[in-house]
Input
Amino acid sequence: MPCRDEFRVHLRKEKWLNNLSIISKTNIIEFSELFGTAILTSSSPGCGTRGLPPC
Output
């Protein structure tokens, strides 16, 4: 029954791609949260100037 087998392979592939997509989105969000705040903090005005401590 090649049709049934092909359909099973298709469903497994869809599930794998869906899981990969969820993992990728989660990683992108975590990466942007981790580095986005660090970039904002280090580039905020006044850090390390006029006697203020470095960020």
